[in-house]
Amino acid sequence: MLASGSLDGIIQIWDIASESLKCTLDGPGGGIEWVRWHPRGHLVLAGSEDSTVWMWNADKGAYLNMFSGHGSSVTCGDFTPDGKTICTGSDDATLRIWNPRSGDNIYVVGGHPYHTEGLTCLAISSDSSLALTGSKDCSVHIVNITSGRVVNSLVSHSDSIECIGLAKSSPWAATGSMDQKLIIWDLQHSIPRSTCDHEDGVTCLAWLGESRFLATGCMDGKVRIWDSLSGECIRTFSGHTAGVQGLSVSANRDFLVSASYDGTARVFEIAEYQ
Fold first, then answer.
1. By the 8 A CB rule, do 76 and 56 touch?
2. How many CA atoms does the CB half-sphere of 4 hold within 13 Å?
3. Domain match, 135 and 4 both
4. Are residues 213 and 89 in the same domain?
């Protein structure tokens, strides 16, 4: 199944095989900022501009829970990989950690030493223990999900953080910013391994499976492939006439899909970067 969210506050669930609309989910009073699937089920989670987060059973088309507490648009969020917890970030400069079953808000992370401006993105470690959050305040903070405490900070960018990605095969993270830089971080020592310069703001990134390579999307319309070991750009894909909004790697890891403000999506072959 495929889930799509719209600025009208509606989630649509599609059957990919038959290309038919399976059901429509509503509830939020504002546009949908993001949509995520539960890692082991048919639960759909969505964050809205109206400061709420909603969860549905996509199989049954049924509303399950609404999480309220944020004071502004919920800009990012996800289930933890073990499916037991929800993390959401908001333009109100807080991270909230929720119990998906009860709907209880377990922790609110905010104030010093956390972000001073709205959150823009988050990534959760594969063991479900840490959340990395990026903000308009140019910083990245690492939060222990179990305790709700800020355990570290990554400070090197000079403009809004737009994307964060965690490597699957090493203790590294990648952050992209409107300062035109991609930074590869060594999380064990909280230091930058390499800085990769772009021609414009970096809006999105994706690690290519478990390889050492990752892709970035940029406001200059280009998609670039980077070697995280050397920090070198080894391939540039052109074609978009406006900034790249999002990147996704196919399940077989042979293709990279980019979506752009020019209204198109493009598919690039990346099988050699595995």
1. no
2. 11
3. yes
4. no
How many other β-carbons are positioned within 10 Å of the β-carbon of residue 124?
Answer: 23
- In 3D space, the residue among 86, 20, 12, 92 whose CA is nearest the CA of residue 50 turns out to be 92
CATH number at 227 reads 2.130.10.10
Q: Give bridge partners of residue 247 from the DSSP assignment.
A: 258
Q: What angle do CA 226, 232, 235 make, to 5 degrees?
A: 50
- Answer with the one of 155, 176, 192 that is the final residue of a domain: 155
Number of domains in the chain: 2
Note the pLDDT tens digit of each residue in 57-107. Answer: 999 999 999 999 999 999 999 999 999 999 999 999 999 999 999 999 999
Distance CA 96, CA 90 (A): 8
Q: Which domain holds residue 109?
A: 1-155
Kindly state the tokens that stand for 84: 């037991």
Q: The pTM is what?
A: 0.96
Same domain? For 3 and 101 the reply is yes
Contact 245, 217 (CB under 8 A): yes
